[in-house]
Amino acid sequence: MKRIAVISNHAFSLINFRGPLISRMVESDLHVFALAPDYSNEMMNNVIAIGAEPIQYTLSRTGMNPMRDLIDLSKLVILLHRLKPTITLAYFIKPIIYGSIAALVAGVSQRYSIIGGLGFIFIEDKDNKTFKHNLLRKVISFLYRLALSLNNRVIFLNRDDLEQFCKKGIVYADKAFLIPGTGVDLKHFYFAPSVQKPITFIFIGRMLKEKGVHEFIKAARSLKDRHPESRFIMIGGIDVNPGSIQEHHLHSWVKEGLVEWPGQVNDVRPWIAQSSVFVLPSYREGKPRSTQEAMAMGRPVITTDAPGCRDTVHDGVNGFLIPVRDANALARSMERFIEQPDLIVTMGIESRRLAETHYDVHKINRQLMSIMGISAV
Protein backbone atom coordinates (compact mmCIF):
# COMPACT_ATOMS: atom_id res chain seq x y z
CA MET A 1 0.00 0.00 0.00
CA LYS A 2 1.34 3.43 -0.96
CA ARG A 3 1.71 5.97 1.81
CA ILE A 4 1.06 9.68 1.38
CA ALA A 5 1.71 12.47 3.87
CA VAL A 6 -0.59 15.48 3.48
CA ILE A 7 1.22 18.36 5.20
CA SER A 8 -0.75 21.38 6.46
CA ASN A 9 -0.28 24.14 9.00
CA HIS A 10 -3.89 24.03 10.21
CA ALA A 11 -5.82 20.92 11.26
CA PHE A 12 -9.16 22.60 10.53
CA SER A 13 -8.24 22.81 6.83
CA LEU A 14 -7.50 19.08 6.59
CA ILE A 15 -11.18 18.32 7.13
CA ASN A 16 -12.89 21.42 5.79
CA PHE A 17 -10.75 21.99 2.68
CA ARG A 18 -9.02 18.65 2.01
CA GLY A 19 -11.46 16.21 3.63
CA PRO A 20 -13.03 14.99 0.36
CA LEU A 21 -9.56 14.61 -1.21
CA ILE A 22 -8.26 12.62 1.75
CA SER A 23 -11.37 10.42 1.67
CA ARG A 24 -10.86 9.77 -2.04
CA MET A 25 -7.22 8.86 -1.41
CA VAL A 26 -8.22 6.41 1.32
CA GLU A 27 -10.82 4.86 -1.00
CA SER A 28 -8.06 4.53 -3.62
CA ASP A 29 -6.10 2.27 -1.23
CA LEU A 30 -3.60 4.85 0.04
CA HIS A 31 -2.50 5.07 3.65
CA VAL A 32 -2.90 8.77 4.40
CA PHE A 33 -0.95 10.55 7.12
CA ALA A 34 -2.59 13.93 7.83
CA LEU A 35 0.03 16.24 9.37
CA ALA A 36 -0.88 19.40 11.30
CA PRO A 37 0.67 21.29 14.23
CA ASP A 38 -2.53 22.25 16.04
CA TYR A 39 -4.69 19.15 16.49
CA SER A 40 -7.49 19.08 19.04
CA ASN A 41 -8.96 15.75 20.16
CA GLU A 42 -12.11 16.54 18.16
CA MET A 43 -10.15 17.25 14.99
CA MET A 44 -8.08 14.09 15.41
CA ASN A 45 -11.28 12.06 15.68
CA ASN A 46 -12.63 13.76 12.55
CA VAL A 47 -9.51 12.77 10.60
CA ILE A 48 -9.70 9.19 11.89
CA ALA A 49 -13.37 9.08 10.87
CA ILE A 50 -12.46 9.61 7.19
CA GLY A 51 -9.87 6.85 7.32
CA ALA A 52 -6.65 8.85 7.68
CA GLU A 53 -4.03 8.85 10.43
CA PRO A 54 -3.63 12.20 12.22
CA ILE A 55 -0.04 13.15 12.94
CA GLN A 56 0.91 16.07 15.16
CA TYR A 57 4.11 17.85 14.20
CA THR A 58 5.93 21.03 15.23
CA LEU A 59 5.57 24.17 13.14
CA SER A 60 5.29 27.87 13.93
CA ARG A 61 2.67 29.17 11.49
CA THR A 62 3.79 32.79 11.44
CA GLY A 63 7.06 32.90 13.38
CA MET A 64 10.21 34.17 11.66
CA ASN A 65 12.88 32.79 13.98
CA PRO A 66 15.42 31.00 11.73
CA MET A 67 16.79 28.84 14.56
CA ARG A 68 13.30 27.74 15.57
CA ASP A 69 12.47 26.96 11.94
CA LEU A 70 15.65 24.90 11.49
CA ILE A 71 14.78 22.86 14.58
CA ASP A 72 11.24 22.32 13.25
CA LEU A 73 12.66 21.31 9.86
CA SER A 74 14.98 18.74 11.41
CA LYS A 75 12.09 17.29 13.44
CA LEU A 76 10.00 17.03 10.27
CA VAL A 77 12.82 15.18 8.50
CA ILE A 78 12.96 12.66 11.36
CA LEU A 79 9.17 12.29 11.34
CA LEU A 80 8.94 11.68 7.59
CA HIS A 81 11.84 9.23 7.77
CA ARG A 82 9.90 7.30 10.42
CA LEU A 83 6.57 7.39 8.56
CA LYS A 84 8.21 6.45 5.24
CA PRO A 85 5.62 7.93 2.84
CA THR A 86 6.18 7.47 -0.88
CA ILE A 87 4.36 10.75 -1.64
CA THR A 88 4.05 14.13 0.08
CA LEU A 89 1.43 16.77 -0.69
CA ALA A 90 1.97 20.12 1.02
CA TYR A 91 -0.05 23.33 1.04
CA PHE A 92 0.34 26.75 2.73
CA ILE A 93 3.69 28.55 2.62
CA LYS A 94 5.61 26.98 5.50
CA PRO A 95 4.47 23.38 4.90
CA ILE A 96 5.42 23.76 1.22
CA ILE A 97 8.87 25.17 1.95
CA TYR A 98 9.84 22.97 4.89
CA GLY A 99 7.79 19.96 3.80
CA SER A 100 9.47 19.85 0.39
CA ILE A 101 12.98 20.12 1.84
CA ALA A 102 12.27 17.60 4.60
CA ALA A 103 10.71 15.15 2.14
CA LEU A 104 13.80 15.22 -0.07
CA VAL A 105 16.17 14.69 2.87
CA ALA A 106 13.94 11.90 4.23
CA GLY A 107 14.06 10.10 0.89
CA VAL A 108 10.46 10.64 -0.23
CA SER A 109 10.44 9.99 -3.98
CA GLN A 110 7.33 11.97 -5.04
CA ARG A 111 6.82 15.51 -3.78
CA TYR A 112 3.88 17.77 -4.70
CA SER A 113 2.65 21.18 -3.55
CA ILE A 114 -0.58 23.14 -3.94
CA ILE A 115 -0.19 26.92 -4.16
CA GLY A 116 -3.50 27.96 -2.64
CA GLY A 117 -2.70 31.67 -2.86
CA LEU A 118 0.35 33.88 -2.52
CA GLY A 119 -0.65 35.57 0.73
CA PHE A 120 -0.24 39.12 2.02
CA ILE A 121 3.47 39.21 1.25
CA PHE A 122 2.79 39.27 -2.52
CA ILE A 123 -0.03 41.83 -2.41
CA GLU A 124 0.92 45.14 -4.05
CA ASP A 125 -0.01 47.77 -1.49
CA LYS A 126 1.34 51.11 -0.33
CA ASP A 127 1.71 49.61 3.16
CA ASN A 128 3.80 46.77 1.71
CA LYS A 129 6.67 48.87 0.37
CA THR A 130 8.79 49.04 3.50
CA PHE A 131 12.34 47.71 3.53
CA LYS A 132 11.31 44.92 5.90
CA HIS A 133 8.41 43.85 3.68
CA ASN A 134 10.49 43.90 0.49
CA LEU A 135 13.23 41.90 2.19
CA LEU A 136 10.70 39.37 3.45
CA ARG A 137 9.23 39.03 -0.04
CA LYS A 138 12.69 38.35 -1.48
CA VAL A 139 13.45 35.76 1.20
CA ILE A 140 10.13 33.97 0.70
CA SER A 141 10.56 34.03 -3.09
CA PHE A 142 14.02 32.48 -2.68
CA LEU A 143 12.70 29.79 -0.33
CA TYR A 144 9.78 29.07 -2.66
CA ARG A 145 12.20 28.77 -5.60
CA LEU A 146 14.36 26.34 -3.62
CA ALA A 147 11.47 24.23 -2.31
CA LEU A 148 9.50 24.04 -5.55
CA SER A 149 12.60 22.99 -7.48
CA LEU A 150 12.45 19.84 -5.33
CA ASN A 151 8.84 19.09 -6.33
CA ASN A 152 7.80 16.72 -9.08
CA ARG A 153 4.84 18.96 -9.87
CA VAL A 154 3.33 22.16 -8.50
CA ILE A 155 -0.43 22.73 -8.61
CA PHE A 156 -1.96 26.21 -8.81
CA LEU A 157 -5.56 27.32 -8.26
CA ASN A 158 -5.48 30.32 -10.59
CA ARG A 159 -3.60 31.28 -13.73
CA ASP A 160 -2.35 34.63 -12.37
CA ASP A 161 -0.31 32.93 -9.64
CA LEU A 162 0.97 30.28 -12.05
CA GLU A 163 2.12 32.86 -14.59
CA GLN A 164 3.70 35.08 -11.91
CA PHE A 165 5.73 32.19 -10.48
CA CYS A 166 6.83 31.05 -13.93
CA LYS A 167 7.73 34.59 -15.03
CA LYS A 168 9.84 35.16 -11.92
CA GLY A 169 11.56 31.81 -12.32
CA ILE A 170 10.20 30.48 -9.03
CA VAL A 171 8.84 27.37 -10.77
CA TYR A 172 9.52 25.87 -14.18
CA ALA A 173 6.56 25.92 -16.58
CA ASP A 174 6.79 22.18 -17.26
CA LYS A 175 6.21 21.51 -13.54
CA ALA A 176 3.25 23.90 -13.18
CA PHE A 177 -0.31 22.58 -13.40
CA LEU A 178 -3.65 24.38 -13.04
CA ILE A 179 -6.84 23.12 -11.40
CA PRO A 180 -10.11 25.13 -11.01
CA GLY A 181 -9.94 25.35 -7.23
CA THR A 182 -10.41 23.31 -4.08
CA GLY A 183 -13.97 22.51 -5.13
CA VAL A 184 -17.07 21.90 -3.04
CA ASP A 185 -19.43 19.00 -2.47
CA LEU A 186 -22.49 20.10 -4.45
CA LYS A 187 -24.80 17.89 -2.40
CA HIS A 188 -23.51 19.21 0.91
CA PHE A 189 -23.68 22.79 -0.36
CA TYR A 190 -27.18 22.51 -1.75
CA PHE A 191 -29.09 25.13 -3.72
CA ALA A 192 -31.12 27.23 -1.27
CA PRO A 193 -33.73 29.87 -2.18
CA SER A 194 -32.36 33.33 -1.45
CA VAL A 195 -33.64 35.68 1.24
CA GLN A 196 -34.92 39.00 -0.11
CA LYS A 197 -36.55 40.58 2.94
CA PRO A 198 -34.42 42.02 4.33
CA ILE A 199 -31.75 41.91 1.64
CA THR A 200 -28.75 40.43 3.40
CA PHE A 201 -25.11 40.66 2.38
CA ILE A 202 -22.73 38.07 3.78
CA PHE A 203 -18.93 38.09 4.00
CA ILE A 204 -17.13 34.84 4.90
CA GLY A 205 -13.40 34.85 5.55
CA ARG A 206 -10.73 35.51 8.12
CA MET A 207 -10.90 38.95 9.68
CA LEU A 208 -7.97 40.39 7.73
CA LYS A 209 -7.36 43.74 6.09
CA GLU A 210 -6.42 42.04 2.82
CA LYS A 211 -9.76 40.21 2.73
CA GLY A 212 -11.39 43.62 2.24
CA VAL A 213 -12.96 43.88 5.69
CA HIS A 214 -12.56 47.66 5.85
CA GLU A 215 -14.15 48.08 2.40
CA PHE A 216 -17.08 45.89 3.49
CA ILE A 217 -17.56 48.03 6.60
CA LYS A 218 -17.36 51.31 4.67
CA ALA A 219 -19.89 50.06 2.12
CA ALA A 220 -22.19 48.81 4.87
CA ARG A 221 -22.06 52.17 6.64
CA SER A 222 -22.87 53.99 3.39
CA LEU A 223 -25.83 51.73 2.61
CA LYS A 224 -27.21 51.72 6.15
CA ASP A 225 -27.79 55.47 5.84
CA ARG A 226 -29.96 55.01 2.74
CA HIS A 227 -31.31 51.50 3.33
CA PRO A 228 -31.48 51.00 7.10
CA GLU A 229 -33.40 47.73 6.68
CA SER A 230 -30.49 46.03 4.89
CA ARG A 231 -28.49 43.44 6.80
CA PHE A 232 -24.75 42.74 6.84
CA ILE A 233 -23.17 39.57 8.24
CA MET A 234 -19.47 38.81 8.69
CA ILE A 235 -18.46 35.19 9.33
CA GLY A 236 -14.90 34.37 10.31
CA GLY A 237 -12.35 34.31 13.09
CA ILE A 238 -9.48 36.56 14.07
CA ASP A 239 -6.19 35.34 12.63
CA VAL A 240 -2.58 35.49 13.81
CA ASN A 241 -1.48 37.66 10.91
CA PRO A 242 0.03 41.14 10.44
CA GLY A 243 -3.15 42.24 8.69
CA SER A 244 -5.54 40.94 11.33
CA ILE A 245 -8.47 43.15 12.35
CA GLN A 246 -8.43 44.02 16.05
CA GLU A 247 -11.23 42.40 18.03
CA HIS A 248 -12.29 45.67 19.66
CA HIS A 249 -12.93 47.12 16.18
CA LEU A 250 -15.22 44.21 15.36
CA HIS A 251 -17.15 44.65 18.59
CA SER A 252 -17.48 48.39 17.96
CA TRP A 253 -18.97 47.73 14.49
CA VAL A 254 -21.44 45.29 16.00
CA LYS A 255 -22.35 47.78 18.74
CA GLU A 256 -22.81 50.46 16.09
CA GLY A 257 -25.40 48.22 14.42
CA LEU A 258 -23.46 47.97 11.16
CA VAL A 259 -22.85 44.25 11.09
CA GLU A 260 -23.50 40.94 12.79
CA TRP A 261 -20.35 39.01 13.67
CA PRO A 262 -20.83 35.51 15.10
CA GLY A 263 -17.12 34.76 14.62
CA GLN A 264 -15.94 31.49 13.13
CA VAL A 265 -18.69 28.91 12.75
CA ASN A 266 -18.51 25.16 12.21
CA ASP A 267 -21.12 25.17 9.45
CA VAL A 268 -21.57 28.14 7.13
CA ARG A 269 -24.56 26.69 5.29
CA PRO A 270 -27.31 28.05 7.59
CA TRP A 271 -25.74 31.49 7.32
CA ILE A 272 -25.49 31.39 3.53
CA ALA A 273 -29.08 30.13 3.41
CA GLN A 274 -30.30 33.25 5.24
CA SER A 275 -28.38 35.59 2.93
CA SER A 276 -29.14 37.28 -0.39
CA VAL A 277 -25.70 38.14 -1.82
CA PHE A 278 -22.17 36.94 -1.09
CA VAL A 279 -19.46 39.62 -0.88
CA LEU A 280 -15.67 39.14 -0.87
CA PRO A 281 -13.74 42.38 -1.58
CA SER A 282 -10.38 40.60 -1.17
CA TYR A 283 -7.10 42.03 -2.46
CA ARG A 284 -5.87 38.64 -3.74
CA GLU A 285 -6.80 34.97 -3.37
CA GLY A 286 -5.85 31.52 -4.59
CA LYS A 287 -9.41 30.52 -5.45
CA PRO A 288 -11.65 31.41 -2.51
CA ARG A 289 -13.42 28.38 -1.10
CA SER A 290 -16.05 30.59 0.55
CA THR A 291 -17.06 31.99 -2.85
CA GLN A 292 -17.38 28.50 -4.31
CA GLU A 293 -19.60 27.47 -1.37
CA ALA A 294 -21.84 30.52 -1.79
CA MET A 295 -22.11 29.92 -5.54
CA ALA A 296 -23.08 26.29 -4.97
CA MET A 297 -25.89 27.47 -2.69
CA GLY A 298 -27.14 29.84 -5.38
CA ARG A 299 -25.87 33.21 -4.25
CA PRO A 300 -24.77 36.00 -6.59
CA VAL A 301 -21.26 37.24 -5.88
CA ILE A 302 -19.62 40.64 -5.59
CA THR A 303 -15.86 40.34 -5.60
CA THR A 304 -12.76 42.11 -6.85
CA ASP A 305 -11.06 42.06 -10.22
CA ALA A 306 -8.01 40.52 -8.54
CA PRO A 307 -6.08 37.24 -8.95
CA GLY A 308 -8.17 34.27 -7.86
CA CYS A 309 -11.27 36.39 -7.23
CA ARG A 310 -11.99 37.42 -10.82
CA ASP A 311 -12.13 33.78 -11.93
CA THR A 312 -15.32 33.13 -9.93
CA VAL A 313 -17.49 35.84 -11.47
CA HIS A 314 -18.71 36.43 -14.99
CA ASP A 315 -19.34 40.15 -14.61
CA GLY A 316 -23.03 40.94 -15.00
CA VAL A 317 -23.96 37.24 -15.21
CA ASN A 318 -23.58 35.74 -11.72
CA GLY A 319 -22.47 38.90 -9.98
CA PHE A 320 -20.25 41.95 -10.27
CA LEU A 321 -16.51 42.57 -10.34
CA ILE A 322 -15.23 45.72 -8.64
CA PRO A 323 -11.79 47.35 -8.37
CA VAL A 324 -9.61 46.37 -5.42
CA ARG A 325 -9.84 48.65 -2.35
CA ASP A 326 -12.83 50.56 -3.76
CA ALA A 327 -15.52 50.79 -1.09
CA ASN A 328 -17.63 53.15 -3.22
CA ALA A 329 -17.75 50.69 -6.12
CA LEU A 330 -18.64 47.95 -3.66
CA ALA A 331 -21.50 50.01 -2.24
CA ARG A 332 -22.81 50.77 -5.75
CA SER A 333 -22.84 47.08 -6.68
CA MET A 334 -24.54 46.14 -3.43
CA GLU A 335 -27.14 48.85 -3.97
CA ARG A 336 -27.97 47.42 -7.40
CA PHE A 337 -29.22 44.27 -5.67
CA ILE A 338 -31.27 46.35 -3.23
CA GLU A 339 -32.87 48.34 -6.05
CA GLN A 340 -33.20 45.36 -8.43
CA PRO A 341 -33.91 42.34 -6.20
CA ASP A 342 -34.82 40.20 -9.21
CA LEU A 343 -31.07 40.07 -9.95
CA ILE A 344 -30.60 38.08 -6.75
CA VAL A 345 -32.61 35.20 -8.20
CA THR A 346 -31.33 35.24 -11.79
CA MET A 347 -27.67 35.71 -10.87
CA GLY A 348 -27.95 33.17 -8.07
CA ILE A 349 -29.15 30.54 -10.54
CA GLU A 350 -26.14 31.34 -12.74
CA SER A 351 -23.81 30.96 -9.75
CA ARG A 352 -25.15 27.47 -9.07
CA ARG A 353 -24.76 26.55 -12.74
CA LEU A 354 -21.15 27.75 -12.76
CA ALA A 355 -20.43 25.84 -9.55
CA GLU A 356 -21.80 22.65 -11.09
CA THR A 357 -19.68 23.20 -14.21
CA HIS A 358 -16.38 24.21 -12.59
CA TYR A 359 -16.28 23.49 -8.85
CA ASP A 360 -17.51 19.93 -8.33
CA VAL A 361 -15.04 18.66 -5.73
CA HIS A 362 -15.18 15.08 -7.01
CA LYS A 363 -14.20 16.11 -10.54
CA ILE A 364 -11.42 18.35 -9.23
CA ASN A 365 -10.03 15.66 -6.93
CA ARG A 366 -9.87 13.17 -9.79
CA GLN A 367 -7.95 15.76 -11.81
CA LEU A 368 -5.61 16.51 -8.89
CA MET A 369 -4.88 12.85 -8.22
CA SER A 370 -4.24 12.30 -11.93
CA ILE A 371 -1.63 15.09 -11.86
CA MET A 372 -0.02 13.28 -8.92
CA GLY A 373 -0.06 9.96 -10.76
CA ILE A 374 -2.58 8.39 -8.39
CA SER A 375 -5.38 6.24 -9.79
CA ALA A 376 -8.65 7.42 -8.25
CA VAL A 377 -11.46 4.94 -7.70
How would you characterize the overall build of this protein?
This protein has 377 residues and is α/β, with parallel strands linked by helices. The protein has 2 domains: 2-182 and 361-371, Glycogen Phosphorylase B (Rossmann fold); 200-358, Rossmann fold (3-Layer(aba) Sandwich). 42% of the residues lie in helices and 16% in strands. It has helices spanning 11-16, 19-27, 41-49, 66-83, 93-105, 131-148, 159-167, 213-226, 247-256, 269-273, 289-296, 327-339, 342-358, 361-371; strands spanning 2-7, 30-36, 53-56, 87-91, 110-115, 153-156, 176-178, 200-204, 231-235, 260-263, 277-280, 301-304, 319-322. The strands form 2 sheets. A 7-stranded parallel beta sheet has the order 3-2-1-4-5-6-7, sandwiched between helices. The protein has a 6-stranded parallel beta sheet with strand order 10-9-8-11-12-13, with helices on both faces. Helix 4 (66-83) packs across helix 5 (93-105).
Explain the layout of strands and helices.
Blueprint: E1 2-7, H1 11-16, H2 19-27, E2 30-36, H3 41-49, E3 53-56, H4 66-83, E4 87-91, H5 93-105, E5 110-115, H6 131-148, E6 153-156, H7 159-167, E7 176-178, E8 200-204, H8 213-226, E9 231-235, H9 247-256, E10 260-263, H10 269-273, E11 277-280, H11 289-296, E12 301-304, E13 319-322, H12 327-339, H13 342-358, H14 361-371
Parallel strand pairs: 1-2, 1-4, 2-3, 4-5, 5-6, 6-7, 8-9, 8-11, 9-10, 11-12, 12-13
